[in-house]
Automatic annotation (TrEMBL), chains A, B:
<dbReference type="InterPro" id="IPR051319">
    <property type="entry name" value="Oligoribo/pAp-PDE_c-di-AMP_PDE"/>
</dbReference>
<dbReference type="Pfam" id="PF02272">
    <property type="entry name" value="DHHA1"/>
</dbReference>
<dbReference type="GO" id="GO:0003676">
    <property type="term" value="F:nucleic acid binding"/>
</dbReference>
<feature type="domain" description="DDH">
    <location>
        <begin position="19"/>
        <end position="160"/>
    </location>
</feature>
<dbReference type="InterPro" id="IPR038763">
    <property type="entry name" value="DHH_sf"/>
</dbReference>
<protein>
    <recommendedName>
        <fullName>RecJ</fullName>
    </recommendedName>
</protein>
<feature type="domain" description="DHHA1">
    <location>
        <begin position="246"/>
        <end position="319"/>
    </location>
</feature>
<dbReference type="InterPro" id="IPR001667">
    <property type="entry name" value="DDH_dom"/>
</dbReference>
<dbReference type="Pfam" id="PF01368">
    <property type="entry name" value="DHH"/>
</dbReference>
<dbReference type="InterPro" id="IPR003156">
    <property type="entry name" value="DHHA1_dom"/>
</dbReference>
Amino acid sequence: MENNLSLISEKLIEKNNYIIVGHSIPDGDCIGSMIGLYLVLLKMNKKSIMLLEDPVPPIYHFLFGSNMILKPQDISKNDFENIIYLDCSDKNRVGESVADFLNDKRYIINIDHHATNELFGNINLVNPEASATAEIITNLIPLLNVDITKDIANALFTGIVMDTGSFQYSNTTSETLKIASYLIDSGVEQEKVRINLFESKSHKEVLLLRKSLQSLKVSSDGKIAWMQLSIDDIKELDVKDLHPEGIINHTRSIKGVEVGILFRETSPGIVKVGFRSKSAIDVAQIAKKFGGGGHEKAAGARLEGRLDDVKSKVLNSVKEVID
Amino acid sequence: MENNLSLISEKLIEKNNYIIVGHSIPDGDCIGSMIGLYLVLLKMNKKSIMLLEDPVPPIYHFLFGSNMILKPQDISKNDFENIIYLDCSDKNRVGESVADFLNDKRYIINIDHHATNELFGNINLVNPEASATAEIITNLIPLLNVDITKDIANALFTGIVMDTGSFQYSNTTSETLKIASYLIDSGVEQEKVRINLFESKSHKEVLLLRKSLQSLKVSSDGKIAWMQLSIDDIKELDVKDLHPEGIINHTRSIKGVEVGILFRETSPGIVKVGFRSKSAIDVAQIAKKFGGGGHEKAAGARLEGRLDDVKSKVLNSVKEVID
């Protein structure tokens, strides 16, 4: 680990131009790590761009640099020699259009914290002990002789906060908190970050939570809680493009519930199913049965069928696993 | 500060018996600090008891030592010579029955983080820079030559988490995060703490949130959001004894909202009003107008009158302050 940290820093100093990429459906750690490293490379006078398949979710628009993240179709000429993959366990995680765009011989730098990382880089910095890729980037910066500005600090702090559930998930180590402490000393604008991440929901998002809670059910043994949003609910609230961030967590918040589920009919006959585990159950395995995937405690799948049929199929499967 | 830290540690080592008290309607920092210090004194072979006017809220029952917190009526003989006030800005914060119980000459040790602390102790350790009283206690322990056990770490970590909104409020300093890091190294059981604090709500609490959200209103300028729970709602859900923890925060979570309010009719003609501010508005001042009080960003008051009358009176007053 330590070796690669200094090897990677030497490479970053040595080379001159970079495409920074992250995974499709980007989360806070992906966005925060990309922007953090991009701003550092900018201070090092390196030519670099950031590239994502999917749009930056609005809650991250407050981060300085978020509007400099490009899509493949934004770029006409592609003469960058080095690619930095961030927060991607394999090369395909960037999504199809970005993967096509990158599809030729380039020098690959791979920085990630997923234990499943396939070590696909010419050089790899993969630390599964790190709570977030942003934690690794923060450790890299002193070796690049760059001072952390408040904009860099905001981006990296956001990455860590989002991947640790505000330092509540078990991936939060004493090292994570030390790094967060260092970022605060480097100028994180805490109120700005908090308001943008947690206190800037649209009125419609709150109405969507209300609608979801109206459907809340708990199994007779108290171990499964689920909510549903039908396509009619979504049309009624006019929230087709809204990702129901955080709503599913209300299922897991109930005492005794081991698995929380949100069934969301995104179009007639298509149901997206989100899974959350509180502790012992591995929901990634459950999601996998239905062609999905994810992490042990947060996973998802996309099923075809009527909402009621999907519900009974999935609930039976979860019951089996719990029993 | 530093001086008092070592002075207090010397006193704690020198003296032999203690009553540890906290404020009425105790919160996580109050409970966590009391238990943390109690377990430390236990390891120092000091005779000590913990005393509170109000019951320990159920979410803190998981903390080892929480069932050793007594009420004044539990104690027949009172021959303790020293009182340690924790998290109390003045002596009356302990509540009437505890204040009566303590009402004679004793040596007073006052440990707190409120800037308004009246320094009423024979010796005072008041640090408004600390996010929580539990942060101060953590700093005190090394001077007492006691090793932090996992039970002590869980209690103090809980105090800090609850007073900083999971390290999101602006009172979270780089020092706070370093102290939290040290507690994790000392054995905090993170999953246990997270599940008990945030994922152990009763089904009824979630139904209460749902009922509250059904009444959500936002002012035409988008700066005030409010919800209400009538006495009929509370009776219907059979939640008279349930404190609607965290529900009010959903008002503040909406973009643009500066002040969030929850009106809760606790009995016919009595309305408890909770205020939350997102940033610039000092809601303690607003609550004060109605005979209440609190902090700049979280305050409350108890008003007499019909729910609708109280609502219009309070909303007008908040509007005036915002304009």
